[in-house]
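From the pipeline queue, job 12 of 40. The input is one protein chain; the requested action is below.

Action: predict structure.
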Amino acid sequence: ILGGTYNGKPMSDAALSRILKRKADNQTKQNKKARLNAEYVRLYEKLHYYQKAIDYAPKDSDIFAEALKEVDYLEYQIDYLFDKLARKD
């Protein structure tokens, strides 16, 4: 790619375009994975917070009921993100 050559021969504009498109596509995929990873970590930290609330809040309190609801939903979201991260697209 350097100097517009490949194996000593000039590289065509079409070949260079394909290489640049592939590079841009890979960068887009990496950015998407990074955003999904950041969201996964954020949800996991939030889940940890609500699990602590379940451990320490009185069982008959509103906090306890809200934490149970949130934990269920967060576990669903984390599973969904994990599946998205595991895909090859």
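Job complete. Residues 31 and 37 are 10 Å apart (CA to CA).
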